[in-house]
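Action item from last week, closing it out:
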Amino acid sequence: MSLRKRSVTLHGHRTSITLEPEFWSGLEDFARSQGKNITAAIASIDDERNPENNLSSCIRVTVLKHFQNQLIS
């Protein structure tokens, strides 16, 4: 399993996010479903997370919940 790192700017600060390619793909799907680009989707996840929680982990959980909700619908 390989990890992919991307840098994004959130609220004027550069940060690097490392995720598995499957989660990047899932995040792109989540962003499209929200009518956002990937950076805006990451920013919304960042805004809602507890600062004590890792951003990459919060992204993974958001993507998981996104697909779980699709299964329920």
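Closing note: The longest strand covers residues 4-10.
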